[in-house]
Design brief:
The complex is a heterodimer of chains A (593) and B (608). With 593 residues, chain A is an alpha/beta fold. Among the domains of chain A are: 89 residues, no CATH class; 164 residues, FAD/NAD(P)-binding domain (3-Layer(bba) Sandwich); 71 residues, no CATH class; 73 residues, 2-Layer Sandwich (Alpha-Beta Plaits), CATH 3.30.70.20. Chain A is built from 16 helices and 25 strands. In chain A, strands 2-1-5-3-4 form a five-stranded mixed β-sheet, sandwiched between helices. The longest helix of chain A is centred in the C-terminal third of the chain and has 21 residues. Chain A is elongated, with a radius of gyration of 36 Å. Chain B starts with a strand and ends with a strand. The longest helix of chain B has 18 residues. In chain B, strands 10-9-13-11-12 form a five-stranded mixed β-sheet. Chain B has a four-stranded mixed β-sheet with strand order 2-1-3-4, covered by helices on one side. Chain B has a four-stranded parallel β-sheet with strand order 7-6-5-8, with helices on both faces. Helices cover 39% and strands 14% of the residues of chain B. Classes of the chains: A alpha/beta (593), B alpha/beta (608). At the A-B interface, strand 4 and helix 2 of A face helix 17, helix 18 and helix 19 of B.
């Protein structure tokens, strides 16, 4: 049954106000700009009505009645007095009761001041001097039960003994650490302890807190919000679901799952890209531990005009950095981590330096091992930066620490050896940007297995020939391009990918593939079905036929390497055109001449 | 099989606690011994109400009433009464030392003035047998409702009867039913509130123990009227006998087709579930009770939207007290007109216009006859206390009557001629409540009693809202201060101010009525408070911290011969004196516990 919203006129303190029926008096008064004190009310929750401070006088005919404004629904012709003597008297005594119990809680103090209660007449035996004492408003319990639907927090005890507890006073397993309770707590009594250590898991980037629903980046394609499964209350507990209530087109679908799609293709181009080396592996650089230590991707995010800071470069406390240190070769060219050079860092580090100079007044320090500005126009850019006054320090950074002098704001201290002057230096900065190594995508090993391609010792995919065929792999029809093959910058990646695409297209335009005729062949009568050959084939060309109980060779995949021929204990596999008989016959023919 | 005599042994909680089951067993054994088992039947009944003189046995059809029985008395009683036909005088009720024993139950003052509706089957049937209930006209009200009346007619009949909620509020039942009926929706519930929590009150327990089917029938009729198919009984788990009998009664009603589908061959179906409460006082409040049924903590919520619109699981829900439900079958059976003949006021046009029918009170305190009484509305307090209750114990003077349990107020002696009904009691600051009635005599201190009730309510407050949680505790602290001599006159003003605020702004009726004992005692017994704060004295000597204990050395030495009993009883070692000589109390050491006063056999300890 659809119910249309009926508008009603109510009289609040002599003002005639038109609001929708069933609005609460508190909301109606708010709309009319009339202040009604309240302590336990939260917009996020159903009114709980326990502080009673929002008591108002409702007048019907000659009878008046005290009701709480937060949960009393208005009806046509209702007359409300929010500031009568009776109401003032009630609020005053209520405030005295609260003030005598929690004299130092800021919200209580402020409200007492506003209601002109200076010295309570009561002496509370339960007096709690703490500044963030629990005032038993119940917001935490209610949000946990009604919104989060985890029902972790609850009240214990009755009467004056009432308090908010976790079950058995222990950390509960059902708590999903959503922090909703701490968010609604008006006094700061509830604190979330371990959020700091979990932030890596909760946030993709360290720059700011993220909600469970977000648009990953504004350049995302398609640009739609996604739900983070690990932070979404609905997916964790089945509670909340507020987003689906607010989404008018009804586009929110909690049931959506990842799906697998089978697509038949003739050729594959592997461009799985790279991973950024995790600088937390080098603890002395303090990433994830010290504030204002970012990796290059974090900083790139900060520079983005659609990023969390709107493109301004700022420290965690919002201030502009006075000095910025950019550290090259974090994990690359390092005997302990990656031995190779990541190729792109020098140039983007220079770009960072340029942008910092451009957008702030900060001093910039580059800590490099060797400056590798090898591309077209790169050396010129390096020269230009030297002119801009970027400080270049040749030396590997030993450690980054947080220091504070004379009680001033703490800053970071970069310690390194300047090999050009042969001295140990300590340089104070406000922000550090680490340029971590490029490493193969984390699931490269998995891809390798699926596609039967090879990895070089540095775990990037191995090309067929480093000079003559850097885009194909040992397996026909599978090509590689970009950082999947090795660290490279954008122009190089584009060039390689274009080459791979051209190669693929040339094969497609031919319409057919010519393969070498040298293939292995299973003689069905001899095959015992031992399956020894199945796992030996480097091209996964051998499969086992369950119905015939014999092994079978896919001729398109077979390269005729002969491994299986040599391995078969029953001599059931022969090379096509290279059977023992044929070879012996050839030899015989040769010898008879 | 017909028997010549029936021995109705009371098996209410009070009498069971006094070994009435053992008496029943002995009776059966004794009757078999004498070969009377085919002539005389032993029946266990529900509570007779006269719990002060239990265990009770009534011999029917003569109506001879025996009290204070012991199982060792049984052989003699069987021999004398059942074989020789001579009722035994020594087990009969004796109103006072000078008067002769009264053999017949109906002649005893305690029973004479009572009018039984809710308790009409008490002592007459075995509550565990549905056949006996039916034989007494049970379920004919339901039959009438289902076969001759439409649901609207049922509601109208209840409305016309002027029946008002017996749980305390006195809301007209018919109006409640009518409102619920008007709310659209298929799912709706009826609830029977058997979570009786007032200290010293046991009306609901007694009704269920003596006549559980009356409650079930009432709920059935109500459900038919309001179109509900599911009922709940919320009963305290501390009532094991009542619970057991109710479970049995529901099982029997199901067996007889009185609960379940197609009741009386009609389309009407109804089922009852029992929910056991853990004994929180606040769960007697309707919204807290519903929260408790839903498996949530028993906390009340604001009732700006009534429970008949949005109650249990947010469906329309009609909650009535045990006694209200027990009245319903009689009203349907005998008609609203019969019901309106009993009671006060005129309810033909306005259901709030009067109080009709009867009310069960539990009469306790300093009165001679304590127990459960059902009296017509409009009877005066004096009649209840002096005619039914037999006056004050030991000939002392009455000080006040406390009605309505911890939520009610004190009514002073000057108002004893007040007719008892909902509105009159409310007018003087007290309330009907669920029907507790505690009589205080001159030995009771009004401050002490107010403190006692307030201690109960502040401990039983759920703690949800500030006025009730903080307010009642502060009130208790102030009273405690007064009772130990630390009170001031400003405290009295503060107490009154705070009390009115708690009444006005509490979330539910528990907080809204908790200050009643304080407010009425301040209103009617201000002098006694003033004596406490000005002179630091307690006129009734009940506030021990204000007393001064001394030993009358003459009595101690001459009558008691320095017996040393007081010295041994004193936990503070404050009493000195050699054996056989007069003792004295060191006032510096005395903590005023009163142990010596209780210990002395010679009344040598004086209290000032």
């Amino acid at each position: 049954m659809e119910r249309s919203i009926r508008m009603v006129t109510v009289n609040i303190d002599g003002k005639k106000i038109e609001v929708a029926e069933d609005t609460t008096i508190l909301k109606a008064a708010e709309a009319a700009g009339i202040w009604i004190p309240s302590m336990c009310y939260s917009d996020l929750l159903e009114p709980y009505g326990v502080c009673r401070l929002c008591s108002v006088e409702v007048i019907r005919g000659k009878r008046s009645r005290i009701v709480t404004a937060c949960n009393y629904p208005v009806r046509e012709g209702l007359t409300v007095n929010t500031n009568s003597d009776k109401v003032k008297w009630i609020r005053k005594i209520l405030m005295e009761l609260m003030y005598s119990r929690w004299p130092n809680v800021p919200v209580v103090k402020e409200m007492a001041e506003r209601l002109e209660v200076t010295k309570p007449r009561f002496v509370s035996l339960e007096r709690d001097e703490s500044e963030n004492a629990c005032i038993l408003c119940g917001n935490c319990v209610n949000i946990c039960r009604d919104v989060v639907k985890a029902s972790v927090l609850s009240f214990e005890g009755i009467g004056i003994e009432r308090k908010v507890v976790l079950p058995f006073n222990e950390q509960s397993e059902t708590c999903i650490s959503c922090g909703a309770c701490a968010y609604v707590c008006p006094t700061g009594h509830i604190k979330i302890k371990s959020l700091e250590t979990e932030r890596g898991a909760l946030q993709d980037f360290y720059l700011g807190p993220k909600s469970a629903i977000n648009i990953p980046t504004l350049q995302a394609v398609p640009r739609v919000p996604v739900i983070d499964k690990n932070s979404c209350i609905k997916m964790q507990t089945g509670g909340c679901g507020i987003c689906s209530e607010f989404c008018e087109p009804g586009a929110i679908n909690y049931e959506m799952k990842d799906e697998e799609v089978d697509i038949e293709v003739g050729q594959i181009l592997v461009t799985t890209g790279f991973n950024l080396f995790d600088p937390q592996q080098i603890p002395q650089y303090g990433y994830g531990r010290l504030d204002n230590v970012y990796n290059s991707l974090d900083f790139e995010f900060m520079l983005n005009s659609t990023g969390p800071t709107g493109g301004t470069i700022q420290c965690k406390d919002g201030s502009e950095p006075r000095a910025v240190g950019i550290i090259h070769c974090v994990g690359s060219r390092d005997e302990n981590y990656k031995k190779y050079c990541s190729r792109v860092c020098c140039m983007y580090a220079l770009k960072f330096a340029h942008l910092v100079k451009d957008r702030t007044k900060a001093e910039v320090y580059q800590f490099y091992i060797d400056m590798r500005a090898f591309g077209k126009g790169y050396e010129e850019f390096y020269k230009r930066l030297l002119d801009e006054g970027v400080n270049m320090i040749r030396g590997k950074v030993a450690e980054i620490t947080e220091e504070s002098y004379n009680g001033n704001k703490p800053h970071l201290l970069v310690k390194c050896e300047d090999t050009l002057i042969g001295k140990f230096r300590e340089i104070p900065v406000d922000m550090v940007i680490l340029c971590p190594a490029i490493e193969p995508a984390q699931d490269a090993a998995k891809i390798k297995k699926i596609l039967s391609i090879s990895q070089s010792p540095d775990k990037f995919f191995l090309e067929r020939h480093p000079k003559l065929d850097p885009i194909s792999t040992m397996t026909d029809g599978i090509f590689i391009a970009g950082c999947a093959q090795g660290p490279k910058d954008i122009p190089d990646s584009v060039a390689q990918a274009s080459a791979a695409a051209a190669r693929i297209l040339s094969l497609i335009s031919l319409g057919e593939v010519s393969v070498d005729p040298i293939k292995a062949n299973v003689i069905e009568e001899f095959c015992s079905g031992c399956r020894i050959c199945n796992n030996l084939c480097p091209y996964t060309a051998i499969s086992f036929l369950e119905d015939k109980k014999i092994s079978d060779i896919n001729e398109m995949l077979c390269k005729g390497c002969g491994t299986c021929v040599a391995a078969c204990p029953a001599s059931a596999i022969t090379g096509k055109g290279f059977t023992d008989e044929q070879i012996l016959a050839e030899l015989e023919g040769l010898l008879t001449v | 099989m017909a028997y010549r005599t029936y021995l109705m042994v009371c098996a209410g909680t009070g009498c069971v606690a006094n070994q009435s089951i053992k008496i029943k067993d002995t009776l059966i054994k004794e009757l078999e011994k004498k070969g009377l088992q085919d002539e005389v039947a032993v029946v266990t009944t529900g509570c007779n109400g006269f719990c002060g003189v239990g265990p009770i046995m009534v011999v029917q059809p003569d109506g001879i009433f025996y009290q204070l029985l012991k199982s060792s008395d049984i052989p003699y009683l069987v021999e004398e009464h059942l074989i020789k036909g001579r009722p035994v005088k020594k087990f009969m009720y004796i109103p006072s030392e000078k008067e002769p024993p009264i053999p017949k139950m109906s002649d005893i003052d305690f029973f004479k003035k009572q009018v039984l509706i809710a308790l009409r089957n008490r002592g007459l049937i075995d509550p565990e047998k549905i056949e006996e209930y039916i034989a007494r006209g049970g379920y004919s009200g339901l039959a009438k409702a289902l076969t001759e009346m439409t649901p609207d007619q049922v509601i109208n009949e209840v409305k016309k009867s002027g029946l008002r909620g017996r749980g305390g509020g006195g809301f007209p039942t018919g109006i409640k039913w009518e409102t619920m009926k008007k709310v659209p929706g298929d799912v709706r519930f009826v609830i029977c509130n058997a979570d009786e929590g007032d200290p010293g009150a046991f009306m609901d327990r007694s009704i269920i123990e003596s006549d559980p089917h009356a409650v079930i029938e009432g709920m059935l009729i109500g459900a038919y009227g309001m179109g509900s198919t599911q009922g709940y009984v919320y009963i305290r788990n501390e009532y094991p006998i009542a619970l057991e009998r109710l479970l049995k009664a529901i099982a029997q009603a199901k067996e007889y087709g009185l609960l379940g589908e197609n009741i009386f061959g009609t389309d009407f179906k109804f089922d009852i579930r029992i929910i056991r409460g853990a004994g929180a006082f606040v769960c007697g409040e309707s919204t807290a009770l519903m929260a408790s049924i839903q498996g949530m903590p028993g906390e009340p919520r604001a009732k700006y939207v009534h429970t008949v619109e949005k109650g249990l699981f947010d469906f329309p829900t009609c909650l009535n007290n045990v006694e209200t439900w027990a009245n319903v079958p009689q009203i349907i059976q005998k008609g609203a007109e019969w019901f309106t003949q009993i009671g006060t006021g005129d309810v033909t046009n306005d259901p709030w216009g009067g109080s009709k029918g009867t009310k069960v009170f539990s009469l306790t305190g300093k009165v001679v006859n304590t127990g459960l009484v059902e009296v017509p509305m409009g009877i005066t307090l004096r009649e209840i206390i002096y005619d039914i209750g037999g006056g004050i114990k030991d000939g002392k003077k009455i000080k006040a009557v406390q009605t309505g349990g911890p939520s009610g107020g004190f009514i002073p002696e000057s108002m004893l001629d007040l007719p008892v009904d909902f509105d009159e009691l409310t007018k003087v600051g007290s309330m009907m409540g669920s029907g507790g009635m505690i009589i205080a005599d001159e030995d009771n201190c009004i401050v002490d009693m107010a403190k006692y009730f307030l201690n109960f309510t502040q401990e039983e407050s759920c703690g949800k809202c500030i006025p009730c949680r903080e307010g009642t505790k502060r009130m208790y602290d102030i009273l405690e201060n007064i009772s130990v001599g630390k009170g001031t006159e400003e405290d009295l003003e503060l107490l009154e101010d705070l009390s009115y605020m708690v009444v006005e702004s509490s979330l539910c009726a528990l907080g809204g009525s908790a200050p009643n004992p304080v407010l009425t005692s301040l209103k009617y017994f201000k002098d006694e408070y003033l004596t406490h704060v000005r002179e630091k004295k307690c006129p009734a000597k009940a506030c021990r911290q204000l007393n001064v204990y001394t030993i009358d050395e003459e009595i101690c030495a001459t009558v008691g011969h320095g017996c040393d009993l007081c010295k041994k009883s004193c936990p503070d070692f404050a009493i000195f004196g050699e054996t056989k000589k007069a003792h004295h109390i060191d006032q510096m050491k005395c903590h005023k516990c009163g142990a010596c006063y209780d210990a002395c056999n010679f009344k040598a300890i004086k209290v000032e």
